[in-house]
Amino acid sequence: MHQYGQFCLDLYDVQNSVALNMPSEYSLVHVPHPGVYTFGGRGKLVSWEESWGIARKEVKPGLERFTVPEGARLMLVRPNHNPFYFQIPTRAGVVGQYAQPQAHLPVSRV
Fold it and tell me: How do residues 22-36 score in pLDDT, each as one tens digit?
């Protein structure tokens, strides 16, 4: 996902060492800030499966997929808990060469 400026995001139970799907009562919400894409303006992060119209019950445990842009700020919303804010890391930029377009444009003198 490096070439697209994104990371895959998984939910993981560290006590039981197992990947999880997003509990239905939880949500990840994008916290907008300048320079980072805002998930189509909806704010809520949706899994690949949800965006494809796959029912939650059909997604095998631990296989739900999320993708987030580098530098995104997210808020985890859970019932009976304060929101938990975190930021996705950024990678060093790719150094490349940029072409300088040049064209000879005729100038008419009136």
Answer: 999 999 998 887 776
